[in-house]
Amino acid sequence: MSKNRLEAFSDGVFAVAITLLVIEIAVPTGEDLWHQLKEEWPSFASFFVSFWVIGIIWVNHHGVLDHLKRADRWVLYLNLLLLMTVVFIPFSTALLAEHLKSGADEEVAAVVYSAAFTAMGLAFASLWTYITRHRAALGVKLSDDEVRRTNVVFLIGNPVYGIALVVAFISPAAVLVINGAVAIYYMVVGMRSPDL
Amino acid sequence: MSKNRLEAFSDGVFAVAITLLVIEIAVPTGEDLWHQLKEEWPSFASFFVSFWVIGIIWVNHHGVLDHLKRADRWVLYLNLLLLMTVVFIPFSTALLAEHLKSGADEEVAAVVYSAAFTAMGLAFASLWTYITRHRAALGVKLSDDEVRRTNVVFLIGNPVYGIALVVAFISPAAVLVINGAVAIYYMVVGMRSPDL
Amino acid sequence: MSKNRLEAFSDGVFAVAITLLVIEIAVPTGEDLWHQLKEEWPSFASFFVSFWVIGIIWVNHHGVLDHLKRADRWVLYLNLLLLMTVVFIPFSTALLAEHLKSGADEEVAAVVYSAAFTAMGLAFASLWTYITRHRAALGVKLSDDEVRRTNVVFLIGNPVYGIALVVAFISPAAVLVINGAVAIYYMVVGMRSPDL
Amino acid sequence: MSKNRLEAFSDGVFAVAITLLVIEIAVPTGEDLWHQLKEEWPSFASFFVSFWVIGIIWVNHHGVLDHLKRADRWVLYLNLLLLMTVVFIPFSTALLAEHLKSGADEEVAAVVYSAAFTAMGLAFASLWTYITRHRAALGVKLSDDEVRRTNVVFLIGNPVYGIALVVAFISPAAVLVINGAVAIYYMVVGMRSPDL
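Above: the input entities. Below: the structure tokens describing the complete assembly.
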């Protein structure tokens, strides 16, 4: 099975999900617009963080599928699992923004927001782990050593998403900072190891 | 006529429809968020089931078009018919979720939800049947025997969608279970017959 | 300039516009769902007609661009003009559905709905006319005779869209029938002249 | 790293953002529809201007990536930055339309609208500048002279977007005219220098 349509479909889902983030930001009406826009900072901040998290996951997804010659059914299904968590992000982002704004139960919203990223990280790790374990069948040319080094990079996001999940109970806004930091980490690592 | 744009357009529609599912989940505001999220289980459950049904239909669509060398007008039109039913699913999903939540007329909503999947199954069957009957013209290299075996797989979803349509009158929530089971069936079958 | 990205972008816009049609259908809540769904017939009918009009325009767009070897800036701009009219259709569709339901000023809504299709037909005609007049530069291999025959087919939609625009003032619901008939006409013609 | 998926993902985001513009136009209900539609002119005017600005940016983006043989991580990240500003435009467009309609704080909305385009122009300039400074590594075959001439074209939008940002404080509606003029300028320049 060729991987072209897998990429096309995934790119489509990533593109729609990343664009829908903005649809969830309520358009303020009426007077005092500066003030209203300032009050909306949680919407802009969570839009910003979620945009970059999805963007970086797309870059890494790109990097992973580049290694594949062909896809099997498990790759399709694990990829669908990953896409399901990506599609969920506009919801969790709007939920966090809404509750950071109102101040009501913001810890709960931050837990859901972090849990969504944790699920995304785990789905990505499953896809990556499956691919590295079936390198021969999928036509992946990576040595054991390369896999080991890449594992460290791709899987390190997960404990950090987990930490964000715990921090959510204490400081909901810190969750944005931690998840934004994971995105920056991947950007920096990606630039240093261009073959990822 | 080449099939590249047919695939690109179809992938786009599948990608948008599968991502729009989440847009229909209302973002709860205010206090008691844990409780509200628990009350929203029908939204999450129907999002989950519809995501996998669309995802698996996309995988099977992929499998079907892979056999084609070229497309004719009937393929384009039957494919549009299939896409119309796919595009309808975010609506039927939101309808079911809404009525499972409120408890009002949930049987009716479950009937609409099942009818949408039944229509999708029939549209898929029409496309598949047309393709197998015009193998020479479309450049499909499948023996009669392969077609017969694949028919069983591709068409078995239809009676089950039909059963879900009847069950909807009795137990609306069971509809989610049955349709989820069809998706799982196709996942398992797909893994066993990788050439589908 | 290659035409690949022109096709990819156009397919994306067509795919999003055709899927957004369903987002504009309000999800009925509460009791009496059968009755409510029956009352919503204008939403379903206009969704249905608009889906097929966009779908057929996509098929014809496909047919037109297939002739091109390369695109120039005018092709890009006239294509953008066409896409602008396509993007507008979810709005005009929702407007017609809303006013057919309430019965308030339905003629005005039907005029806007027809005007949107008329604009789409004119944009398509402009793109097609430009391409046929610059066949050498765009690498189109069509004889004068083929162009003349295809002109009849591609341009006949326009007077009919114009007639629908007039009929809108008298019978708003008839507008759906006329525009649906244009889509069917193109489906039938397309099947008879597969090289279009 | 190949640039295919970069283009596919970017085209997807452009396509979704340009189509979402129409979703933000409220569908008027009830009587006096002609009057209501006339009152909605700011929605139509800003839809129109934003559609063409995004459309022309897509054409120019197309032109820029056509020069590349391959992409590196910086190209991916600067491209994501550009896409983030594009994704924001349906929000700033709806904000301007809303406030031009109500007349409340329209200057503030016009400032946000212009700022969004200014940010888009700067992101585009960053991407273009990075690419021209790393021509060898990215496989770009442009002479210093060609880069200098193209710089003038690609970067001239920025001061004009900046002027619109200042004009916004005085005449909010003029902002639409200025930004529309930038789009027209790029259309005319693009037709004169087809190799861009």
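Note for the figure: Residues 73-102 of chain A form the longest helix (30 residues).
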